[in-house]
Design goal:
By secondary structure, the chain is of the alpha/beta class. It is built from twelve helices and twelve strands. The longest helix has 17 residues.
């Protein structure tokens, strides 16, 4: 397998996977369940979700380890199983991975705020990321992707910890749109994120979650003004709507696929989906990419 950067140097944008949570919910995940525990307790379901994304055309699929930091697992009484849960989550992707495709180790926020906003101990946060990244590498990750971060200091701790594995690291922050432009909830701009994530060692930087595909197209344009490394863009399927106990999103697969092409045209070298997107979304993006870039 060529390195990620070698693959990006080709003319065609790379295709990532879509949302994980929605797929688990469809298979019975409850609101008070730990999604990551399914890596151990319901491995066939997790493996089948990964396989569906590969079959839809995704080059790369991310592990079900978004909430795998020990501080986050502690809410479920699972902190002492951090290594097992992350390692087995990574193995589920590797088991589903066809030849020539990538298995990505996924890392999300630790679940607590660092000073001065919060009281989390930076040393504890760093050590948790180190444990998580090490387990993902042990499970067979090709690359580590740190995503949905809004605090640049937490992102720095995560990147530095993940780099200790020797694997390439991707880093995505999550932005909201305001009258002044796009910022994380901690006030980080795309310009600052693009520069600092690369300076810390990420080989790919970008944005995911929080916003729909139309806003993501504009955010890509802003990001690319300052990006010195390739960019990934993974938008939500529009805005969530609650109908009783079920959450749906207001952008369908065909509309999302058209926006994904617009993200690529705006400069994103990697496109995929986040909350609300499914293998059907990824299959339609693949179809549109084939039409445009074949």
């Amino acid at each position: 397998m060529s390195s990620l950067i070698e693959l990006i140097e080709k003319d065609r944008p790379l295709l990532w996977d879509g949302g994980m949570g929605t797929q688990l919910i469809e298979r019975g995940l409850k609101a008070d369940d730990a999604p990551e525990l399914w890596n151990v307790d319901r491995p066939d379901d997790v493996r089948d979700i990964h396989a569906a994304y590969y079959a839809a055309g995704a080059l790369a699929v991310q592990s079900n380890t978004f909430g795998g930091h020990p501080m986050k697992l502690a809410a479920y009484g699972l902190a002492d199983r951090t290594r097992e849960i992350n390692r087995e989550g990574m193995r589920r992707v590797v088991e589903a991975r066809p030849d020539g495709k990538l298995a990505i180790g996924d890392i999300g926020p630790c679940g607590s705020m660092l000073p001065p906003t919060g009281t989390a101990d930076p040393a504890e946060v760093r050590e948790g990321f180190r444990r998580q990244a090490s387990a993902l590498a042990q499970g067979g990750a090709d690359i580590i992707h740190i995503e949905t971060m809004f605090d640049i200091e937490e992102m720095r701790l995560a990147i530095e910890s993940a780099l200790e594995t020797g694997l390439d690291v991707m880093a995505s922050m999550t932005f909201e749109r305001s009258p002044r432009g796009f910022f994380t909830i901690m006030g980080i701009s795309p310009e600052v994120a693009a520069q600092q994530l690369a300076d810390t060692g990420a080989v790919v930087v970008g944005a995911n979650c929080s916003i729909g595909p139309a806003d993501m197209v504009e955010l890509v344009r802003e990001f690319k003004k300052s990006a010195v490394v390739p960019m990934i863009a993974q938008a939500n399927a529009g805005k969530p709507k609650t109908d009783g106990t079920k959450v749906t999103y207001d952008v369908g697969p065909a509309e999302f696929a058209a926006y994904a092409i617009a993200m690529a045209e705006a400069g994103a070298e990697i496109v995929g989906g986040c909350c609300g997107t499914t293998p059907e979304f990824i299959a339609l993006i693949k179809k549109e990419l084939d039409k445009k870039y074949s």
